[in-house]
Fold this sequence. Notes:
Layout: H1 8-34, E1 37-39, E2 43-48, E3 53-59, E4 67-70, E5 80-89, E6 98-106, E7 110-119, E8 133-141, E9 154-156
Parallel strand pairs: 1-3, 2-8
Antiparallel strand pairs: 2-9, 3-6, 4-7, 5-6, 7-8
Amino acid sequence: MENxxxxxxxxxxxxxTAIAALLIALQSxxxxxxxxxxxxxxxxxxxxxxxxxxxxxVGEEGAGGYRWIIADPRPDPAxxxxxxxxxxxxxxxxxxxxxxxxxxxxxxxxxxxxxLLRCRRCGTGAADEPGARSLNFRVTVGGPPHxxxxxxxxxxxxxxPSGRG
Length: 165
């Protein structure tokens, strides 16, 4: 075998680095394929399968003291369960701020309503406080689990300020 001018240790390091880069790329692709679906205020109909995870993304206005909660009437826990929330950067647009993603898990076939409320005090009557806003979603959990990448119907909807529509 001819000596290529690369030391044996260096060659092993280059191969190990290439393998690590390939594994990182594969992990990134697989995580994108299996990532939960993200819905926004423009989506009023959410169709998922049992076991699916999804998030509803809402604006995070930290300055006003407002927060988003799952409002009454709460979704049927036999159909849909909350799975936490997190704040993430708003996206590629400059000045888009941060957003909150409220996570959910589809449990079993059925239909339930999900109501999110942006409120400051978030107690009784919170929907009527100035600046409150509600978002309503109809969540349908149907049939066997979707194959990843399967189509899911989402219909657009505009949110109205709470108490006005």
